[in-house]
């Protein structure tokens, strides 16, 4: 069944979708039409939400019209997926602007017309684990086509990210812009941060007055067979620290989809303002969290294996936060994380400037101006 589904996807991607696009591309561009598209969520993903809010404000002013194509492709039957994609391609063929934030194969199914601007908002900040063509785990081996060639702009968190993404995505460097990442504008919004705290404590009042540890690791393997490392060690370490500590386990959605592990329903980005200390491994959430200037711990029990397998863009051991590979090291690192953060303040600030220096609370408007939606 899996193989049949893959062949159906290949037929849609390489044959049917290009034909549909060709049928409608000769109609005039619909001035002011803005599409937001995502294939991995049932609701607007956080990485596009700030941009969507800004564009909706422009729509209220009569300057554009928005269309949503946000759907989890994995939840659709083959027939439903085909219908959905045909509808998207018809609108895509005459759209003036398209915003995406992750891999979105329909956008890459054929060469787009020059009058359509495709903006890839991207879903991660900084540089951590290898991605796209730099690893054998992201792009299917049987994929035919130029997955990223239709991007007019790819927006990133800092200049240091540009050459790496140019190579990994096989994209011309002039299309990659260190504007800052749109979603990080939330992290500079005091009202938004306060609302996150209020929502958390109203739902988890037992956490009040405690030191909150947010564990937000990435997954190993692939989306079809994801696995998690270090769960029991994490739980045991915080339990040993005593009642004054409160652990939030926030696993990657791929992991929870195969059996819930997370103990908190709120999304990870809404937990960053709440956390007193973040514990993560190879997840790019570390770079988002840098903008809060709070303590963090790296917990990587399988570091050597991961390093030899997927690999990194930076020297992982030189990241300026304490590194733990065992339960006892983790416990010690948590206890000393505030002292560490104070003693390494200058190194952490330099690390932040290097990897998320363009994120200053105004990224969304810069991207709108870059795309031509805002003067």
Key descriptive features of the protein:
single chain, about 375 residues, alpha/beta, six-stranded parallel beta sheet, five-stranded parallel beta sheet, 13 strands
How do the SSEs run, as a string of H and E?
HEHEHEEEHEHEEEHEHHEHEHEHHHH
Helix content: 25-40%
> How many strands?
13
Largest sheet: 6 strands, parallel
Helix/strand-derived class?
Answer: alpha/beta
Largest sheet strand order? 2-1-3-4-5-6
Q: In one word, what is the shape?
A: globular
Number of helices: 14
Mean pLDDT: 91
Strand content: 5-15%
Q: Work out the radius of gyration.
A: 21 Å
Low-confidence stretches: none
Distance between the termini: 50 Å
Task: Tell me what you see in this structure.
The chain has 375 residues and is an alpha/beta fold. The chain has a six-stranded parallel beta sheet, sandwiched between helices. Strand 12, helix 10 and strand 13 form a beta-alpha-beta unit. Helix 1 packs parallel to helix 3 and helix 6 crosses helix 11. It starts with a helix and ends with a helix. The mean pLDDT is 91.
